Amino acid sequence: xxxxxxxxxxxxxxxxxxxxxxxxxxxxxxxxxxxxxxxxxxxxxxxxxxxxxxxxxxxxxxxxxxxxxxxxxxxxxxxxxxxxxxxxxxxxxxxxxxxxxxxxxxxxxxxxxxxxxxxxxxxxxxxxxxxxxxxxxxxxxxxxxxxxxxxxxxxxxxxxxxxxxxxxxxxxxxxxxxxxxxxxxxxxxxxxxxxxxxxxxxxxxxxxxxxxxxxxxxxxxxxxxxxxxxxxxxxxxxxxxxxxxxxxxxxxxxxxxxxxxxxxxxxxxxxxxxxxxxxxxxxxxxxxxxxxxxxxxxxxxxxxxxxxxxxxxxxxxxxxxxxxxxxxxxxxxxxxxxxxxxxxxxxxxxxxxxxxxxxxxxxxxxxxxxxxxxxxxxxxxxxxxxxxxxxxxxxxxxxxxxxxxxxxxxxxxxxxxxxxxxxxxxxxxxxxxxxxxxxxxxxxxxxxxxxxxxxxxxxxxxxxxxxxxxxxxxxxxxxxxxxxxxxx
Length: 488
What we know:
Number of helices: 19
Helix content: 25-40%
Structural class: alpha/beta
Strand order of the largest sheet: 9-10-14-13-12-11
Radius of gyration: 22 Å
């Protein structure tokens, strides 16, 4: 065991003394040391409940014969950071998270790792760290928040971003807006739609890095708590069996993850995160693979923002195991998982709600939900989420309105200066130009809320929230700050 580097031999007496200060016994020194890397935070709704899950993970580790040590990393709520200077810091936090996990795990020579995560940049950051350090690791995602309810309709945080535009056009009173904001987010968990956090949870399960059912089990449910205990138990087993992240996160695994993403109608942020995770695992994953897989994989689900269903519905339909089962002809189910293979997950599953997970023979669309676009404005590529469109064959011609930054565009939208048919270009929002490649949800949601939805197009070298819908083309490359055509 790696941990013997800090607990064996006469020269390690000082190290053992420090461990005993933590309550470690002589008997414990013969057991695997498991890092329980938590991202609990009191400012992130998706992470406020993770302290309880960490306790349950540790219970599972102990019951399986390991010694758990809880350590922590940072977490940022993209919703709270949205639409202001805070969003400059969101994407860079992914790298800080990956580095911080690597540092604490390597410094203390842990034998295995449980990564407790939930929201947008924390999950990819932790997966990057797992692939980089490549010791036995398993992920526990915290689960979705329940939907809110207002006037008999399910709502969530995306409803609130659009409500701002509805208020500005006079569709909502200030009192109604305030009533909605008090009802939209009823408790802990990741936001209720198939936004980036839940997309990454689903992708993590499809990669084989979390237990079956983990992605959609509700945040504070008994099911999630049982999965937490089992995750802790499995962490000890994968140490004993020497199952490492790079054994699981193969090229086939990433193709499976992309297929599940585009079948669900997930966030375009996977086009940023999966290649970064793959690079740490030694797998080359270009954006062209997203286009290839999406063209050959049907979209089976219409989940908010690409439809009316929520994560509760996907859970009721059987979750990711049911999606794997339905999509089996488009996947390599023999791909390794921390618990066996994806086939083990799919074999025990069935689709329980056909209105939520459509059959491959009668899909939402014959191809997947993500398209990679290239052209004179984006010679190196850009991305659009087709599941956010009612008509994917839309053609738009109109006057171009160019804004050097999100704030200038948002000001024009909220001042009523944007008309039907306008094509909005927000530039200097890329990784270098932003800096930090901010998400443009405040703009796209306000446009939708003002009734302009697919009547206005938005192009940017920045990126979009998983909650975005409409004609939104992001990741335009090269970015303006690098002299790309969008800067002209």
